[in-house]
Amino acid sequence: MRALLLAFPLLLANTAVVTGDNPADGDRHPAGEVTIPPPIKAMLEAAIAAGNDAEVTTIVKYARTADPASGDAVAKVAEQWRDERKRAHDTRIREARLFDLWRGRAELGGYLTTGNSETAGATGVLDLTREGLQWRQKVHLQADYQRSLGITTREHYLASYEPNYKIDSRRYIYGAGQFESDRFLGYTDRYSASVGAGYSAIQTPAMKLDLELGPAYRYTAFTDQTEQSSIAARGSMDFGWKFAPGLKLTQVASAYLQHYNSSVSGTTALAAKVVGPLSAQLSYVVQYESMPPEGRRTTDTTSRASLVYTF
């Protein structure tokens, strides 16, 4: 198909010569209806059969330039195909059942050392997204666990659910509920709830950037037996960049700002495709607590390597 597109201007020139005395008039039926020249029609049908919207757009562009009469007919066929595809897409989503349409990624990493030191650790992440016509739903589950010389040295658990109501292709209203536990950062249980506005600042095949901001409520049970609940401001960023074939850089960060114990978390990851849906990933995680219990550090970092399966 790419070779045909490269030869497209030449094909159009040849077509214009054989369609009639006046090439600009195109090939017409007796009733005056413009027909699409066979070479152009063949390429258009191939692009439509492949479902390649970019190639369909290219064919329409060159057809309009070389022969406006038949170019209009090509554009009409392309527009009808897009309308039919959108109707089929919307119907499929409307008729989908509760457990249909979910897409996501599963990440798994671990290590084990024996001999002079005995250390075992594992990390697991599951991200699920369901795109509807008006609603988007996101689920995030994460667990990190590590033991060294028989002593647990890291234990972090997180579960969140976020529904989004789409105002248009870029703006949305979000709700977010989250549970988190990390006794090494100084808390055993933390519940957060938030609602606010979201905006997709960048939407391209190679790059995306989603920003969210809104008020939140948080309850935290600390390891020193104290409890805290307060109103906070929540902000988040979700950035992804496919900067080379098979390579993707992501940065996910969120912050809860409040009078007592604000917190910030961020994950930077670089993933390289291995084969099919399987990728190898290196990531660096930072978690910050402004006022942890006495004896706890404010910042915790984790570096890890893992395999990621996308489905």
Question: Can you tell me about this structure?
Answer:
Helices cover 23% and strands 55% of the residues. With 311 residues, the protein is of the alpha+beta class. It has 2 domains: 2-94, no CATH class; 102-310, Porin, CATH 2.40.160.40. The strands form 2 sheets. It has a 12-stranded antiparallel barrel. Helix 3 runs antiparallel to helix 4 (53-66) and helix 4 packs antiparallel against helix 5 (68-94). The longest helix has 27 residues, at 68-94. The radius of gyration is 27 Å and the shape is elongated.
TL;DR?
It contains five helices and 14 strands.
Taking the alpha carbons of the first and last residues, their distance comes to: 28 Å
Number of DSSP-assigned strands: 14
Radius of gyration from the CA trace?
27 Å
The oligomerization state is single chain
CATH class of the largest domain: Mainly Beta
Mean pLDDT: 87
User: At the fourth CATH level, what is the homologous superfamily of the largest domain?
Assistant: monomeric porin ompg
CATH architecture of the largest domain: Beta Barrel
What is the count of DSSP helices, taking H or I runs of 4+ residues? 5
Helix/strand order, N-terminal first: HHEEHHHEEEEEEEEEEEE
Please describe the biggest sheet, giving its number of strands, its sense, and whether it closes into a barrel.
12 strands, antiparallel, barrel
> Helical percent range?
10-25%
